[in-house]
Amino acid sequence: MKRKQRASVAAANADHDSDADEPSQTPLPLESFSGDACAALTARYGRSAAPQHRHLLASAAAIRSILLDDGLPLTPASYLPAAVSALRAAGSADPAATAALASLLVILLPHIPSSPSSLPPDAASESASALAAFLSSPDASRLPTGTVRSVVKSLGHLTLHLDAAADWDAVAAPLEALLAASVDQRAKVRKCAQESVEKLFAYLGQCDCTKKASNAATGMFEKHISSAQSLIHLNSDIWEGKETEVAHMLGTMVNLVPYLSKKARKKVFLDAYQLLGPCFTPLTRHVLRLLATLLDHLKAEGVESEVESLVSLVVAYLPYDEKKPDDTIVLAFHLIKSCLVKLVGRSKLWMEALPTAFEAVSGYLILGSKCSDDIAKVVQHCIDSHIDQNVLVTNGPQLTNSGVEGLSDQSALKSICLTINSRLHTCAYPPDSILTVVLGLFLKLGESSFVFMKDILLTLAKFVMKVDKESQLRNVEECIGAAVIAMGPDKVLSLLPIAFHENRLTCSNTWLLPILDKYTYGAPLQFFLEHIVPLAKSVQNASNRVKKEWKRKDLQSWTDQLWNLLPSFCRYPIDVHHSFGSLSKLLVEISKSDDCLYKSAVKALQQLVDGTRRLSTGGQDVEIYMELSALFSSKPDSFKCTRLDRCSKKDARKNLKVLASHSTSLLCTFTDYFLDSSPEKRAHLKVALRCLAQLSGSMNICDLFVSLVKRFDLEDTPLEPECKTDVEDRMDELVKKKDRKDEESTEFKTDEVDRKDGESTECKTDEIDRKDEESTDATVELNNKRSLLLELFSTFVEVADEDLLDKLFGFIKSCLLDSSMSCHSKALFALSIIVKEHSEYSLAHLDEMMLLLHGMKSALDSTVLESQLLCYQHLLVHMIKVNEENTSKKAFLILNELIVALKSKKESRKLAYDVLLATSTNLRSSESNSAESDLQRLFTMVMGYLSSPSPHIVSGAIAALSLLIYSDANFCMEVPNLIESVLVLLQHKAIEVTKAALGFVKVLVTSLQPQKLLNLQADIVSGILPWSLVTKHHFKGKVVLILEILIRKCGFDAINLITPDKFKGFVRSVEEGRKGNRNQTDGAHLEAKEHEQRDGKRRKRVDSNAETGQEGTPSRPPNSWSAGKKQGKDFHLKKRTGRGNPHAAKRHQSRDSGGKGDRTNFKPKSKWQPGNSQGNRGDKSPGSNQKRTRGGASSKMQNSEARAPGHSPSFKKRKRSTA
C-alpha cells in the first residue's frame, strides 16, 4: 500500500512539472455556449478524472458564480481580473489552485479580441502589472515549471493589449519581467519567454517604441555582459556553470537583433566582439551566432574599423585545436565570409584576411569529416565572391612566376594555391572536401589557373598514377578535367605530355586520354592537327610493325584513344575560321578507312556543325553550361568557361559560313563513300550526310540527286508527282469502294474466282515464262541502285524544299508502283520521313500518298508493313491535327488498316499497337485550339467502328480503345460515352466482341484510380456478372479476375452492395478465394471443378473452329438447374471418349456433329432442347445413340475407345435417368 502511495505522489509531482499541466490549446467553441467560458470548459473536460482538469473546472465555476453575483457578462474579458487576483492570492501556498488559474488564463486570453472595447487598457495594464509582479516575486521560483510557463505565456498575450505609445510605464514592468524570464534556468519557461519577448518587440516596433524597447534590451545585455567580461579570461574548466545565464542572454539577443535600433545594434556589437578570444569558452558559440546576426543587420559605414578588428580576432580563433568544437570553426569561418561581404569594396581586406583564414582552416579540409564539407562550401563561396577573374585576365601578360609577387591580388591567390598544394602533399589520398575546393578554383580562374595551379595539377597527376581504386580516382579525375576545361588541353599537355617512345614502344601519360576525351571543350583545332594526328599515326605505324599480339593490342588501343580525341576537339573549337580547311582534308582522309576511324570523323563533323549552329543562334549559354556542369558530381554553383565566352554570336556565324563553303564538296565526297560502303558504315555516314545537308542547302542537294539518277541510268524514272485531278478521282473511288465494301465483298470474290477458273493453262505458262525472263541480273542491279539512292536521300528529307520534295516523292512513287522492285521497304521508309518532317506537303499530296499506301501488299514482308504503318501514323496525326472535313473519311481509311492489323498475326498486331501508342502520345503532347482535343478526336473516330456490322472490326476497335486507355486511363473519363458504349457490347452475340469487351473492362479497372471507379462500378458489375455462368472461352475466369481487382480497389462491401441477389454467392466466393480463406469442406468440390476445367481445355484443343469465334454466338448461361445437372452428368461421357487418344475424340466429335468441327453448324435430327447446347460441348445429339459407327481395324485400342461410351456404366445409368 505504501508503495502505491509513493507512486501516486511521484506521479502527481511529475504532472505538475510536465506539459500535461497546460490544457489543450485548441480554441474553445464559445459560440456554441453563448460566450460562457465555464460552460465550454465543462463540455470539454467534464468527463476527465485528471486532478488538474478538476481544479480547472472548479476555479472556472467559482469565478463564474462571482461574475453572476456581480451581474457581469460571462465573457473571457470578465474572467480575467478575477482570475489574476485569485492567482496572486493563491501564490505558492496552494500550487494546485495556482496551476489551475494559470491554465485558465492561458485558455481565456487568446479569445479576448485586441480592440479596446473588448479589454480596456486600464484593466489590461492592471492585470499585466499584477502578473509581472507575480513573476518577480520569490514565490514564482518555488512554483512548478508548467505553472510559471503558463503565467509567462499569459503575460505575453496580455502585453499585446497594452497601449505602449500612450502609456509606456504600463509596458515597462511586464517587459522587464519577460526579459528576466527569458534567461530563466528552466528551458520551457525560457523558451516561452523568448517567444513572447520577440512578439512583443515586433508589436512595440509598430507602436514607434523601438528606441525604448531597445534600451530595455541593452540594459539587460549590459547587466550580464560585465560578468561575462570578467569570466572571459578565466580557464574554461573552472567556469563551473557561471556562464549559463550569460549564454541565455546572448541567445535572447540573437532573436531581438532584427527589432533593435541602429544605435542599440552597434552598441551590442562593440561589446560582443570583445568576448571572442583565441581559445574556446562556453560562450564562444553564442558570441559567434550573435555577431553573425548583427553583421547581417549592420551597415559597414559605421563599423569598418570594428569589422577589421573582428576579422583579426576570428582568424586568431581558427587554427586547429582538439578542444575547439567543429561547429564553432564553421561558425567562425562563416563570420569571416560575412565580414568580407560587408566590406566587399575594400579589396585590401580580403587580400590579407582570406589567405590567412584559409591557411588556418586548411587543416580541417583534409580531415574528411562533416566539418570539412561545411568549410569547403564556405571556401568555395568566398572564392566565387572575391576573386575577380577579369582582373586576372587583364593582368595576363604580368602573370609569370617572377611577376606575381608584385601584384596584390595575384599574391593572395598564389598564397591560397600554395596552401592547397602543401595540404595535398600531406595526404595519402586527398578527401573530397579539398578536391571540391580545387575543382571550383580551377573553374573560377580559367586560363589563369595555368600560372597559379600548375603545381596542384602535377600533384593530382601523381595521385592518379599511384592509386588504383576507381572510386578514389573519380574525384581526382574530375579535378583534372576541370583543369582541362579551364586551361585548355594544350596547356595541360604541356605540363603532362603524352609522348611515344618508338624504341621502347611505350607511351607516357596514357591515363590522361580518357580525361581529355570527356572534358575537352573550346580547344584549338590546330593543336590537334599539329600534335595529336602525328602522334596517332606514329603509334599506328608502330602497331602495324609489331609482331607480339599483346603489344599490338596496347598500341592499337592507344591509337584508337588518340583518334577518339577528334570529336572532343570539335566541341565548340575556338579556331574554326582558320583551321577547318585542314580539318576537312583530314576528315576526307580518315573517312575512306574501313577501320573504325570513320566513326570518329562522323562524330567530329556532327559535334562541329551542331555546336556552331547552337552558338550562332544565341541564347544557348545556359544549355551549354548545363552540359558542362553535368560532367561533375559536385555540381559547381558558379560555372564559367572563358574559352566559350570569347566566341560571340557574330564569330559563330562567321564560322558557320566557313563550314557552309566546304559543305558541298564534302557532301559529294561523303556521298561517294556512302555508295561504296558496307551497310554498317552507311549507318554512320548518314549522320555526317545529314549534318552536311543542313549546311549545303536544298538546291545543291537537288543537283546532286539529279546527277546520281543519271549516273545510275535511272533517267526513265518519273520525278514529278501525278496530276492532282486524276489522283482525287481515284481517291474518291477508293473511299466509295470502302463504303460499299461490305455489300459487294461476296460478289467481288465470286467474280474473281470465276475469272481465275476461266484462265487457260497456256496463259499461266506464258506468265511464268515472262516472270522468269524479267528476273535477270540487270533487274537485281537496278533494284540495288534504287535501294541505295532511297537510303541516301532519306537523310536529306529534313532540309528539302518543295522542288526537291517533288523529285524525291516522284522517285519513291515509281519504286512503289513497280511490283518487280524489291526496294518497297526503303521507299516506304523514305516516304515516312517526308510525312513526318513536312506536314503541309504531305497534306497537299494526301490523296496520292493514300493511294500508294493502300495499294501496298505487305503481308509477306514485315519491314514493308512496319514502314507502311509508320507512314499511316504520321499521316493520321497530321489529319487529326488539321481537323478538316475533307480529310475525315481518309483518316478512317487509315484507322481501318490499323484495326484490321490489330486482328492479324502476332507480328502485325504488335506493329499496329506501337503505331497507335505513338499516335496517342503525339496527339497528347500537341496543343489544340478547339474545344475537342486532338486525342479526344482519335478516341471518337475509333469509337465509330463500334457500330460496324462486322464483329471482326468491332473487336479490333475495342482492342484499340483498350490500348489507348491503358496508356492514359484518366483521359478516357473525358471522352463522352466511351465507357458506356463498350459496356453495352458485353451483350453482343459474337464471341470475339465479348472477349474484347471483357478485356477492355479488365484494362479499365486496372488502370483507373479507386475514386474514379466509384461511379462506374455498378455498370461494370451488372455487365460482367452474367458471363460468370459461362465457362467456355475463359469468360468465367475473366470475370473472376475483374471482380478481384474491383474488390481490391473499391472494397468488398461496396461491390457486394451493388451485386444482384442472384450473383451474391459467386461474388462472395471470389472474395474468399482472393483472401485464401476457403473452407476445407469445399476441397473436394474445388478439386472436381479444377478437373473439369482441365478437361475443358482438352476439349478446346479438339474444337478449334469454335474457339476462333470469328462470328459465332457465345453460349449463354443455363436457364435451369436441370440443364446444369445434365451437363455435369455428360462430363463422364466426354471424358471417356477422349481419354488417352485425341484421334478417338475427334472421331467421336465428327460422329456427333456430322463430320464437321464447327458446332455452330450442328443440326441434330431431333428437336433442340434448351440447355443441351449451353454447356454440353461435343455431346451427341438426341437420337444419335441409336446410330453405331463401324470401328476401323487398324487399332484395337481405337476400337475399344470408340465402343467405350456404349458399354460404360455411367452411360447406362444416364440412359435410365433420362428415361
Automatic annotation (TrEMBL):
It holds the Pfam family RRP12_HEAT. Residues 372-670 form the RRP12 HEAT domain. Residues 1132-1149, 1210-1219 have a biased composition (Basic residues). Residues 1-31, 745-776, 1074-1219 are annotated as: Disordered. InterPro entries: ARM-like (IPR011989), ARM-type_fold (IPR016024), HEAT_RRP12 (IPR012978), HEAT_RRP12_N (IPR057860). Residues 745-773, 1084-1095, 1150-1161 have a biased composition (Basic and acidic residues). Residues 25-301 form the RRP12 N-terminal HEAT domain. Coiled coil: none annotated. Residues 1105-1122, 1169-1186 have a biased composition (Polar residues). Belongs to the RRP12 family. PANTHER family: ARM REPEAT SUPERFAMILY PROTEIN. This is Ribosomal RNA-processing protein 12-like conserved domain-containing protein. The lineage of its organism: Eukaryota, Viridiplantae, Streptophyta, Embryophyta, Tracheophyta.
